[in-house]
Amino acid sequence: MSARILDGNALSATVRGQLAERAAALTARGTAPCLAVILVGEDPASAVYVRNKVAGCEKAGIRSLKFTYGLDARQDEVMARIAELNADPLVHGILVQLPLPKHFDAEAVLEAILPDKDVDGFHAENIGALAQGNPRFIPCTPYGVMQMLKSEEVPLKGAEVVIVGRSNIVGKPMALLLLSESATVTVCHSQSRDLALHTRRADILVAAVGRPKMITGDMIKPGATVIDVGINRTADGKLCGDVDFETAKEVAGLITPVPGGVGPMTITMLLTNTLESAERAAAGA
Ligand code: GUN
What we know:
The chain has helices at 8-28, 44-60, 75-87, 106-112, 124-131, 140-151, 171-180, 195-199, 245-248, 262-282; strands at residues 4-5, 34-40, 63-69, 93-96, 160-164, 184-188, 204-207, 225-228, 232-233, 239-240, 254-255. By secondary structure, the chain is α/β, with parallel strands linked by helices. The chain folds into 2 domains: 30-114, Rossmann fold (3-Layer(aba) Sandwich); 140-263, NAD(P)-binding Rossmann-like Domain (Rossmann fold). Helix 1 (8-28) runs parallel beside helix 10, helix 6 crosses helix 7 (171-180) and helix 6 (140-151) packs across helix 10. The longest helix is centred in the first third of the chain and has 21 residues, at 8-28. It is globular, with a radius of gyration of 19 Å. The chain starts with a strand and ends with a helix. It binds guanine (GUN). Guanine (GUN) binds next to strand 4 and helix 6.
């Protein structure tokens, strides 16, 4: 048996179409939604992500500003830029692409972003609000995963969910979101003993570790929903996820591909957060 494919490109196209209408309406009312993106250093993957984010904005009718800094950039100049963008009423979202170069204190940089413009949802205040079940901005990748699960009406209440990976960007906020939907959530990581013992129990398995094809078909419960957040490159330059798609699709009931799964939804939710921020600003909220 072969799993159904959960197509992130198709869902993205639908959601982005609705966003474009909202962006046009807001612009017509005198508020042009605007996202500022800051890229520091020379990480090639980050450069691609930022290019895709800027292109996504343009297609949805959201203004974008891009600020790039070399590997030798000083933290204080990036902080000065953030302060300027915080104070600019025409900017509704500020995103600093991660990872930052090693000589940066990433936490200090993220904390410098005004929580009302933190469309990544990485500021401690926004993580706290999410943990309390009262989110201001939901981090884009887990937000996209939730939209995908909801679009397929995957039952969440009481479901056994296993998340592999405990990052601040995906694993931890993913766990909070699924908990708030009354799922039973297990978070596994590199130190977990007998990973397969956990993954085989999962009705919903979320892989977010950054290790190519580490989740194989024998680790999946028959009929499970498998969400692959990984974006890795194989030795021959091809993109692949954290899930071994070929063996997993024979066991799973529903599965996201890489590329064309979670990736496009991450950018879609960034656009959603930016637009929402602009709508709040226009409403004086
Ligand atoms: N690097 C990898 N994922 C992300 C993300 O969602 N936001 C930012 N700012 N950087 C990232």
